[in-house]
Write a structure and sequence with these properties.
- The complex is a heterodimer of chains A (150) and B (118).
- Helices cover 37% and strands 20% of the residues of chain A.
- Chain A is of the alpha/beta class and 150 residues long.
- In chain A, strand 2 and strand 3 form a beta hairpin.
- In chain A, helix 1 crosses helix 2.
- The longest helix of chain A has 17 residues.
- Chain B is mainly α and 118 residues long.
- Chain B has one domain.
- The longest helix of chain B is centred in the first third of the chain and has 20 residues.
- The chains are: A alpha/beta (150), B mainly alpha (118).
- At the A-B interface, helix 2 and helix 3 of A face helix 1, helix 2, helix 3 and strand 1 of B.
């Protein structure tokens, strides 16, 4: 499957309200429509993963990720904050583009690792940061993914 | 949600995270893409797991430890009435009950703690 197939317009937030990394994680988790308790558990797990090392991979991109029992299938979301957020990224620069990936501990089709790899590959494309900055709608984001054919 | 069930979920999720750090491919991604020091990460996770496990009640803690020692996932999600630990149907009445995560219950087939995924 292509990366495009895992995203939908509803899980793309081009103007995150968050002013901090923690708030951005909370805001992105909220797009999955889980109940409050599950959102809290998921947020806590993402924070625990961040405590092991930032998921900010440089070039303004972060890929927070974790597995958790509170989701029943792989879920992905994208958020953009053009002012940038302090993510303690590898290159120490602010993060503008956040790809969130969560999955249950066991998946029938085991997509978690391939999707994580595809997003990392997408993030390494030299054209991608500028293309993400130029997006005007969630549909543009989906078209961008499609155009890369990853 | 029952506080002990929430604690069990957190423990199980952390164990999954720890397992990921030992899994060849995922550990490589964590190390190569995210520059995680895998050995340090495992140490941090073990410390946190130890801390959380002491917060389980005696009865739940003993049951959890027995399964953990056998390498079993101690908590299994229930999706559409199926325990995803043993893939057997959970009793219908129990599976459909409202407020189903408000108490700690175990699968009658495999003994795992059950978490009903909403």
């Amino acid at each position: 499957m292509l990366l495009r197939d895992f995203f939908s317009a509803e899980t793309v937030q081009l103007d995150l309200a968050a002013e901090t990394k923690d708030d951005a994680l909370r805001e992105l988790v909220s797009v999955f429509g889980l109940d409050g308790k599950s959102e809290g558990i998921l947020y806590k797990m993402l924070k625990r993963r961040e405590n092991l090392g930032s998921t900010g991979i440089g070039r303004s991109i972060a890929i927070p990720h974790c597995r958790s029992l509170v989701v029943n299938r792989l879920r992905v979301a994208f958020g953009r904050k053009m002012d940038g957020l302090d993510f303690k990224a590898i290159d120490e620069k602010p993060v503008r583009y956040i790809f969130l990936i969560v999955a249950p501990p066991l998946e029938v089709s085991n997509q978690y690792l391939p999707v994580l790899g595809k997003i990392a590959q997408f993030g390494k494309d030299p054209d991608v940061p500028d293309a993400l900055a130029a997006l005007e709608s969630p549909e543009d984001f989906l078209s961008l993914l499609e155009s890369k054919g990853i | 949600m029952h506080a002990q069930l929430e604690l069990l979920l957190e423990i199980q999720d952390l164990r999954t995270q720890r397992h990921g750090m030992e899994d060849g491919t995922l550990a490589d991604v964590e190390s190569d893409v995210f520059a995680v020091e895998v050995a340090d990460a495992i140490e941090i996770l073990d410390e946190k797991l130890g801390e959380l496990e002491t917060r389980l009640t005696e009865e739940i803690g003993e049951r959890y430890s027995r399964m953990a020692r056998k390498g079993m996932r101690a908590v299994a999600p229930v999706i559409k009435g199926i325990c995803y630990g043993c893939f057997m149907a959970v009793a219908t009445a129990r599976a459909s009950e409202a407020g189903r995560n408000s108490r700690v219950e175990n699968c009658e087939h495999c003994g795992r703690f059950l978490y009903h995924v909403v």
